[in-house]
Amino acid sequence: MARLELSNLHAEVAEGDEKILEGVDLEVESGEIHALMGPNGSGKSTTAKVIAGHPAYEVTEGEVLLHLEDEEFGEDIEIDEDQRTWDLLDLEPNERAALGIFLGFQYPAEIEGVTMTNFLRTALNAKIEEREELFEEEEGEDEEEEDEGFESSPMEGPADEGEVGVAEFQQILQEKMEQLEMDEKFAQRYLNAGFSGGEKKQNEVLQAAILEPSIAVLDEIDSGLDIDRLQDVSNGINALRDEQGTGILQITHYQRILDYVEPDHVHVMLDGQIAKSGGPELAEKLEDKGYDWVREDVYGTA
Amino acid sequence: MSAGTQVHANLTEEQVREISGDLDEPDWLLETRLEALEALEELDMPDVIKTPGREWTNLHELDFESLVDPLNAAENKDQVGPDEADVLSWADAVQEHEELLQEHFGSIVDTQENYLTALSTALFSTGTVIYVPEGVDAEDVTVRTEQNSRSLFNYTLVVTEESSSVTILERQSTGEEAEEQYYSGVVEVAAGENSYVQYGSLQNLSEEAYNFTVKRGVADTYATIDWIEGNLGTQLTKTEVSTTLSGDSSETQIVGAFYGHNDQHFDLDAKVWHRAEHTTADLVTRGVTDDVARSVYEGVQDVGADAWDTSSYQRENTLMLSDESEADASPKLIINNHDTEASHSATVGQIDAEDLFYMTSRGVDPRSARNMLVEGFFVPVLEEIDVDELRDDLEELIGARLRQRD
Question: What is the pTM of this model?
């Protein structure tokens, strides 16, 4: 079980003092799907980037906490009840990823010369390694000494035991690609380079499926998709929730994807704050009536 | 006293006579050397890139007086090739192929083009001659030079006859290091009709060394000359790789890769002269500068008036890994024939912050992410290299240098 908590989150652009987030409160748990909606410029993407640790934004107030329960740590690790919460703002982007935060990008970078296979295997192994380090710190020094004892034991196996090897990874990748109905040629292509908009989005979902995050923040993953691709991407997102218990924060402009990925909660963002929250019916109302009524409702002005 | 001896207090006609005599060279060659020595006084350094207020490569500051030690050249050399082709040391070539030398030596690179070519002509004491007879396919010619002396002057001649082919892999490295060393290399390639020459070079000299290299080829009808130019070593490299497409339907490709760190300085030229019909050229260079390293690249595509139906492409990209490193790129297109398809582009930039964030947000630590991006940056150039050995070596050297970084 994992829980992501944003409380009173304020952020501005790091270079300059343009305020973008002005007190965001939000809670996403494993297995839940939250839709975050709102007009352009309301702060949705910034919220996503701040959660993941984008260096262009500076958090001026508030907290981003990630709470993990036992099953999130793996069998070998026991962590005291009071040490299961991480303040993400103290951590680097790769450390946040290791704890199970995934950001699906609206415009994924195109990385020349780095194959999908190579990148994803590196990311997966980096996650495993980084988690060990993060959890060891929490475990305290006694445990570390015990580990050192094991390291010299001939029963322990190679130092990089636990790493996902090339062959093993190929199998994982192939399996996940089949599930998402992706062409296997993608595996040897360079990361997003020359991918169509739809292929990029599908690739984002594939990466989430492989990295198995606790919480996935998907930033307008539905934009620019034809109906077939939208269904594939939606199936992938539902599988994340159903099979891995991932908690999903789905950022979108439109009701369209919510027909396929049914949200448990819908939030409307206006001017850097969550202005209104509700169930799936809220999204339908937004589709019909736009955002102005929310503004009127909350602020008393249009 | 001749004019030459006035230029350099420690360079004398007697030394040149001794070098030539030790190699048992014919008189015409000795004369060529002596004329080059004498010309030194009149000659200037090779041209370098100038941007307003700045001459990027200052060759005048080099103290050739102390760098050049002509009678104490020492090296460790491998010259290997298949039986069907002649791969000869300079001394053997002088004995076995005098006519070939007389025809080609100095025919492509003017021995008195500038101070450094003349110095090289007067003083070279080692070299390789590769002669590929008609119809022979000569794979895997390897020339490895390990410099063990203060200065080393090297000369290479490649001659391919009609419908032959050759793949040459040249490596330059430093064996015994001195405080400062000077390596000079002149390469001439005469590609006969319908022949194919691939000349790959990997320069990994000591980072205390200075390097001056000029590699030039002339391609006859239907001939192809492909160059691969890898530069990793030296504190200063001034190099030019160029092809003259003198025969109809001749082709050339110049692929370059460099990686400068610490205070290394690379001055790299890639040039093609379209001088016949239906000729094709593709110039691709990618490099990295780190720390306080500098690179300056000049690329020239010159399409002559008679070069009908020309295709000519040039791309150069430099990635700066530090704020203090510098790079300048100057691609030039000179077109004197309207029936030409040509393009050129050059970029100088840093690692993209969004690319880096994308990778770190997926769990890859910043250092590994950056290394993957740099290795990926070189891939389009590495993909152009057909010689597996050269590509693997280059990849390995780039990787090793990246891992050295903090």
Answer: 0.90
